[in-house]
Every structure is written in structure tokens, then in C-alpha cells.
Design goal:
With 282 residues, the protein is an alpha+beta fold. It has 2 domains: 40 residues; 217 residues, no CATH class. Helix content is 18%, strand content 32%. The protein is built from 8 helices and 15 strands. The strands form 2 sheets. Strands 1, 2, 3, 4, 5, 6, 7, 8, 9, 10, 11, 12 and 13 form a 13-stranded mixed sheet that branches. The protein has a two-stranded antiparallel sheet with strand order 14-15. Strand 2 and strand 3 form a beta hairpin. Helix 1 runs parallel beside helix 2. The termini are far apart.
Length: 282
């Protein structure tokens, strides 16, 4: 998060909460908190996480059911084995594909500008299988001769939880009214629903969350809610269609082009360059 628009007092209090020295200028404190965010991820911004049980709150239960299906109880994910996952390629979602042939979507699209993310320990474990993120597929590091023995990553436990995280809220001042400077920010706390998974090989639960890409969107929320959408058996794993064995272990390939495909034509003395036709072409 961009802490440089917060007051020195807010930054000092946040540094103390994280157990760090709280002296220095506003820029120094903001830079230190940013480094901590980059190093520890959500471990730095999470204040507490409390388990709610198996079901999401009522206000999330019917959200986006037309797009992704009805809400699924978390307990139905237990004992499934993850063989492939896709995150943030087209929508703010995490889609899990299981060895059983079923799949589910963890929807984080309540904020229109949201992105879904993973706690560090959960991400580390999930990267043991082939996955797709932001339109790029990364193949598992498992060598070809052992690929046939990979049975996927077992989900030992799945829960719904409520997390309290550090958030930033814009505040209006007299200077902001003149549009001469960006609005100031204050640090606050936000409650948001997260989904927790404990996978085989993990000693504790890691959580899936949603966060706003830009600070000014959707009522100035920083964190969004997530839910487990319909568990279905009519969405086969992309591994069945992709030329996975043509990619080396640990290699990447682009599946979805998110950047602009428009390319400008260079100008030569005020005129557009005309490319020469290929030999034998029309």
C-alpha cells in the first residue's frame, strides 16, 4: 500500500503494532512499511483472522450466482486433490481443478476492481503443481519421469473466516477541494471474508483473499469478500487441452494477452512506412 499520504502519527502507530521502531520521518516510516508489506505479504497487514465455520455470511450467499453458481459449503472441498489452478486471468477469481474431474471457483469480484490473492504459505504450496496466473501458465517443477506419479495436492481442511486487516481511507481537506494535491489517507481496520485451505504438507491454514487494485474504488474499500462458488463437474481441467509436455518443468507460456495488441506504425518524414510484400505474396 502507498503509505506516503498518511500522517506521521498513523505510521508510527502501525510500525509499533508490527513490532518495529517508530522513529524517523514520514517518508522513512512509509518506506519501511512498504518493505515489510513486500517481504511478508498479508502477514504484515493482517491484524487477526477468526474462523466462521463452513458457511459464508448471508449477504455473500447469493452474490454472482448467475456467473459462477451457488455458494458451496467449505466442507465439500475436503479430500479433493488439486491438479491445476487458475487465478486472475480473466476475472478476479481462483479456479481450482481437482483430480476427481470436478472444479470450483473462489469468487472475489464483489469489488469491481478487485484482485484475488493468496497468503504466502498457501501460495508456496500451490506452486508445486502446474498453474495459471494473470494469463501465464507455469508448469510444475516435477520432472517428466515423475509426472505420472503426481496425484495432486490434497485439501485436508477448508474453512470460511473473517479477517481484520489494515486499510487506507481517503480523507478530504481544504487543499483537496482545490484539486491542487491528492487526498490524504488515514489507516483504519476493515473486516472481510476469506476462504482458508490447509493442504497436505502445510502445518496451518492459509487464506484466499480479495483486494482492491485502486484505493478510490467502490466506497473506498481496500479489502473485499470471497466465497466458494458452485462445485461442478462440467469444466474439465485445461491440462487436458494444453500441450503441457512441450513446456519444460518450471517453464512459462502466455495463454491470455492482457496488454494492448494495438501497435503503432512508424512514420517516415510525415508518412506511414509501407512494408514491402513478402516474396511470392499477393
Amino acid at each position: 500500500m502507498n503509505y506516503y499520504r498518511c500522517s506521521t502519527e498513523d505510521l508510527q502507530l502501525e510500525a509499533q503494532r508490527r513490532g518495529y521502531a517508530s522513529f524517523g520521518t514520514r517518508d522513512q516510516l512509509g518506506e519501511a512499511l512498504n518493505r515489510d508489506d513486500n517481504d511478508r505479504g498479508t502477514g504484515a497487514t493482517t491484524i487477526k483472522t477468526e474462523r466462521l465455520g463452513l458457511f459464508v455470511p448471508r449477504e455473500l450467499n447469493m452474490l454472482h450466482t448467475a456467473e459462477f453458481g451457488e455458494t458451496t459449503p467449505a466442507m465439500l472441498l475436503a479430500n479433493e486433490r488439486i491438479v491445476y489452478w487458475s487465478m486472475n486471468s480473466l476475472f478476479p477469481t481462483l479456479q481450482l481443478f481437482f483430480e476427481s474431474g470436478r472444479s470450483c471457483t473462489i469468487d472475489g469480484g464483489r469489488l469491481p476492481d478487485a484482485v484475488v490473492g493468496l497468503d504466502p504459505q498457501l501460495r508456496f504450496r500451490l506452486t508445486d503443481c502446474t498453474f495459471e496466473e494473470n494469463g501465464r501458465m507455469t508448469r510444475s517443477m516435477t520432472p517428466d519421469k515423475f509426472a505420472h506419479s503426481d496425484r495432486g495436492i490434497l485439501i485436508k481442511e477448508a474453512v470460511v473466516a473473517q479477517r481484520t486487516s489494515v486499510a487506507m481511507i481517503p480523507v478530504k481537506t481544504e487543499d483537496d477541494a482545490s484539486m491542487r494535491s491528492p487526498p490524504g489517507m488515514v489507516l483504519a481496520q476493515e473486516l472481510h471474508t476469506v476462504i482458508g485451505l490447509k493442504l497436505e504438507g502445510m502445518d496451518k491454514i492459509g487464506y484466499i483473499w480479495a483486494k482492491s487494485r485502486i484505493q478510490s474504488g467502490c466506497d473506498n474499500q481496500t479489502w473485499g469478500d470471497v466465497r466458494i462458488a458452485g462445485l461442478r463437474d462440467d469444466a474439465p481441467s485445461p491440462l487436458l487441452a494444453l500441450p503441457i509436455y512441450a513446456i519444460k518443468p518450471g517453464g512459462e507460456v502466455s495463454l491470455v494477452a492482457k496488454e494492448s495488441q494495438i501497435r503503432s506504425t512508424p512514420l517516415v518524414r510525415g508518412r506511414r512506412r509501407i512494408s514491402k510484400p513478402e516474396p511470392g505474396g499477393r
